[in-house]
Amino acid sequence: MRSSGASGAGALGFRVGTGFENKHRRPTRSTASFKRFTRTTAAVAATAFLAASLFVIYDATRTFSGVRRDLLVIGEMLAADLALRSPEGARKVIEASEGLFGGVMQASLAAPASEPMAPLSLELTAEPHGTLTLSATPTSALAGIAGRGAAAFALAGLFTLAATRRRRTGMPDTAQRDSYHQLAAAIPMGLACWTGTGQLIVCNDQYRQRLDLDDTKLTYHQAVSRLIAGGYMKLVREDSSLRLLELHCEDGTCLQIDERPLGDGAFMTLVSDITETKRTDALLHAIRDEQRLLARRYHEEKLKAEAASRAKTNFLAHLSHDVRTPLNHIIGFADLMQHQTYGPLGDQRYADYVKTIKASGEHLLASFAAILDLAELDNGSKPLRQDPVLLDEVLGAVVQRFQGQAQRAGITLDIRPGTGAVLRGDRLGFIRMVGNIMDNAMRFTSAGGKVTLASFAADDGVVIEVSDTGIGMNEERLASLSQPFALGDASFAREGGGPGLGISIARAIAELSGGRIAIDSSPTLGTTVAISLPIDPAAAGLIAA
């Protein structure tokens, strides 16, 4: 850090007291008067309009920077909130934010803009919902800037007209000083003008309040001493036409001091309070650091979760494989005993026990086979074929499988007309995917109910829809379906119930085929499962050929 002495702020200012103007040849009286008049008027005019221009630039920059900072802080909070919500909840949050900041800020979720953003707009990533776009209405900000700028330039014009002559000492006369006072009073920051010898020409109320002044004979050196009392000054920039310093006070405030030459050794000092700007910058920096820390932690936890998932999948795969071998032996020996190949068992109860052992073994074998299939689908070790597949043939195979079961259970099976769509994928995988959904619908629909199988085709894909009038599910139960081994209501469980992997296996097949599954359900009303899959025009051409 540089003190006022080290930076030159408390010593000479812009040639304060150096007698720089006496180093040139002394002109004649008439010529000197003319030149003094011309230089002074030009310098005053340039200074006045420069000050007005600087004020407008500073005002516009600070206003728009403040609006963008506010948008950034609001946007980061909204993005963090949206990341934790569902699409419907995200939409409600956006609507609530527009109502809260209506007329000042608008927010929306959309794809990233392909064209450049407006000056008062910004985009933030709001995964998994897309891109959060925030925009502020610049009308009020532009109106304020225009009004203040017009006032500054008007006063600059008056200031220029009033500057007609200067005394040899460099101090303006009374009329000029009154004009200076009017200009200084219009500047919304601390302003002081000094002569080449460091004498105060004029200062506004903001400058007086900052230095607690009541003496109009204050010199530049005394003003600097008062400013740096109880704090330290840091030089930010210095050249022949500008010196920019930051004053850090003991009470935590931060002032920006901007010094510029006016000509003939005179110069002006602009003092502005940038404490809130510094605090906002520090807050944004802290928020960004926190976001980086959270992103790093999220990445670490994600890697741990993925590693745990892979370990779980590998464990299930090995466990299923190791258990299937002894189960096959149990089932084989139970079958031999059931058929009494090597002689009668004796008591009839032994025959019943053997039958139960075989049925239980087959049930366990089917369960472990489903677990192994899911594990292989999850870790990608069981790739699906990519063949042209007629959707109507897939649905026909599923209907043929469940038609007899529906008749025995007293359930109406409603089959809608086909679409003729052609998919690219694994035919057996598609049959199993739709069959698992149909199996759940049949299992949880009571006698007298109805199960509907329909398909709808569009240019970009098809939707397979399975609806039932069964027991349905509440929201909590519906949310648990994303996890494997999720079973239905125990009171409605029927014989042959598996480990609850039907939905998980169907979802895995749909996602590996480029589609997705959506489930909608209400208690006592039933459940609808929609499977969306892409179509392949090239595969349709192969089928036609």
From TrEMBL:
Top-level division of the source organism's lineage: Bacteria
Top-tier EC class: transferase
Reaction(s) catalysed by this chain's protein: ATP + protein L-histidine = ADP + protein N-phospho-L-histidine
Annotated CDD domains: HisKA (cd00082)
One GO CC annotation: plasma membrane
Keyword Isomerase: no
EC identifiers of the protein: 2.7.13.3
GO molecular function, one term: ATP binding
Residue ranges of the TM segments: 37-58, 141-162, 183-202
Residue ranges constituting the Histidine kinase domain according to the UniProt record: 318-537
Pfam families per UniProt: HATPase_c, HisKA
Protein keywords: ATP-binding, Kinase, Membrane, Nucleotide-binding, Phosphoprotein, Transferase, Transmembrane, Transmembrane helix
PANTHER family linked: OSMOSENSING HISTIDINE PROTEIN KINASE SLN1, TWO-COMPONENT HISTIDINE PROTEIN KINASE
Protein name: histidine kinase
